[in-house]
Amino acid sequence: MRRTRRNRCQKTGPERDSDEGNVMGKERFTEVAIVGGGVIGASIAAHLAERKVGRVVVFEREDALGTGSTAKAAGGVRLQFTTAANVALSRYSMEEIRNFKERTGVDADFVQDGYLFLLDSEEDLARFSETAVVQRELGAPVEVITPEEARRILPGIEIGDLMGATFCAEDGVATPAALVAGYAALARREGVELRRGCEVTAAAVADGGGFSFVASGERWECDWLVNAAGPWAGQVGALLGVDVPVSPVRRQFFTTEPLPWVPKKMPLTIDWGTGVYMHLHSGGMLIGNSDPDEPPGFSQTPDLDYLAGVWEDATRRLPRVENAVMKTLNAGLYEVSPDHNAILGPVPGLPRFVLANGFSGHGMQHAPAVGRAISEVIADGESRTLDIGGYSLARFARGTPASEHNVI
Predict the structure, then answer these.
(1) Alpha carbon of 395 to those of 182, 226, 358, 402: distances in Å?
(2) Going by DSSP bridges, is the β-strand pair 142-145/115-119 parallel, antiparallel, or unpaired?
(3) pLDDT tens digit sequence for 110-148
(4) pLDDT (tens digit, 9 = 90+) per residue, 267-320?
(5) DSSP run (H or E) holding 395
(6) What does the pLDDT read at residue 11?
(7) Sign (positive/negative) of CA torsion 375, 378, 380, 382?
(8) Which backbone phi and psi does 248 adopt, to 5 degrees?
(9) 255, 257, 261, 266 alpha-carbon torsion, rounded to 10°
(10) How far apart are alpha carbons 72 and 286 in whole angstroms?
(11) Of 144, 140, 193, nearest in space to 167 by CA
């Protein structure tokens, strides 16, 4: 029997075939191929591995997992969303992140110091107040508070222009890299192959409803193809002629040198009027924003002039930031859908092409729930733990999107 050449990309995990015959003879077939090795792809791989669905291979274009948009995630984990479906994803994910070390062996560094939304208009206060009623009905302990109460939670903020705020003590911050490392470790233990430096550049529907594709010049076949390509999801969809409406949007932030006045407990704070967010980071702060007027694109180069404006907005809200020293400048990409909600599940007409895209800035925090849901779609034919029907790609053709308003 002719022995096929090994894939040229880097690989971790055992060489394995769907049968137990000549491994090398069929090494280019896998039951499930996952395109993208960020936190979403890693979570899906780990959850699938636990279901024993057969061979699972992750194809990551970068040389290491989690070095795309996941690496630039702010790390927020919150219940304060405006749709019931997103609150449900958060609730499930938050529980898994709390128990992440027991599940994977890696500590997610989850600190629940809360989320504080600062509101400087009556209109925003009214909308957030209405949403808080729904959030509480869904079990999220969201409080509508006065500006003075907000300042007691975060001393030093300027409240003269504030109308009010919302606060949820269960919200918090986790470490994105830890989630990727934990899921990757779990997946690897269960036999998943993690192929790095492997870009999928072509794909086609194969006989029987599966797919053939090319990764770093090598040809593969699979029964299921999962698009977890983050900001590049549209490009992966286009390989199969599928319009995945995801736009890459640059998000920029900077970190500061340690600040002696930063409290030991600080909520992730969003100045809603400007869009600036800030939270504790290595004894200092992480402060960021994204420009709503910037056209979509793949640039991940920090713009110092823009970040200087972010620093000024942060200083107006928290004056002591004025004396902070910038330590690092960073830029990453959001993968934004038209309604700022995820696009999940099978593609209409291509039921084995499964999407996990369009998270619009909340992919890291929803990764545990998405991993569970997509693994059930593949293993059981549908997501049973969580209702993801409203996230289907078909909603755009039906004209039934449900916009998420609390997008940072």
Answers:
(1) 33, 19, 13, 9
(2) unpaired
(3) 999 999 999 999 999 999 999 999 999 999 999 999 999
(4) 999 999 999 999 999 999 999 999 988 999 999 999 999 999 999 999 999 999
(5) helix 394-398
(6) 63
(7) positive
(8) -80, 125
(9) 30
(10) 11
(11) 144
Burial of 244 (0-12, 13-18, 19+ CB in 10 A): buried
φ and ψ at residue 88, rounded to 5 degrees = -65, -40
Question: Could you give the CA distance from residue 360 to residue 339 in angstroms, rounded to a whole number?
Answer: 9
Evaluate the CA torsion angle 279, 172, 294, 36 in order and state its sign.
positive
The rounded percent of the chain whose pLDDT value lies above 90 is 87
Q: For residue 304, give the amino acid letter.
A: L
Q: How far is CA 113 from the centre of its chain?
A: 20
In tens, the pLDDT along 11-70 reads 655 443 333 333 333 459 999 999 999 999 999 999 999 999 999 999 999 999 998 889
CA angle 19, 22, 25 (to 5 degrees): 100
pLDDT band at 406 (very low <50, low <70, confident <90, very high): confident
Whole-angstrom Cα distance, residue 274 to residue 65?
Answer: 33
User: Residue 155: phi, psi to the nearest 5?
Assistant: -60, 145
What does the buried/exposed string (b/e) look like for 283-292 if buried means 16 or more CB atoms within 10 Å of the residue's CB? Answer: ebbbbbbbee
pLDDT at 7: 43
Tokens 């992480």 belong to residue: 286
Q: Distance between CA atoms of 126 and 86, rounded to whole angstroms? A: 20
Rounded Cα gap, residues 274 and 306, in angstroms: 13
For residues 110 and 117, the answer to whether their CB atoms sit within 8 Å is: no
**Integer CA distances (angstroms), 356 to 80, 110, 133, 225, 228, in order:** 21, 24, 29, 11, 5
The SS3 assignment for 288 reads strand
Lowest mean pLDDT among 4-18, 157-171, 382-396: 4-18
Quote the mean pLDDT of the chain.
92
191: DSSP letter: T
Per the CB < 8 A criterion, the answer to whether 1 and 26 are in contact is no
Yes or no: say if 67 and 181 are a contact pair by the CB < 8 Å rule. no
Take residue 257 and report the two structure tokens written for it.
């040198």
Alpha helices in 138-175 (DSSP H): 147-153
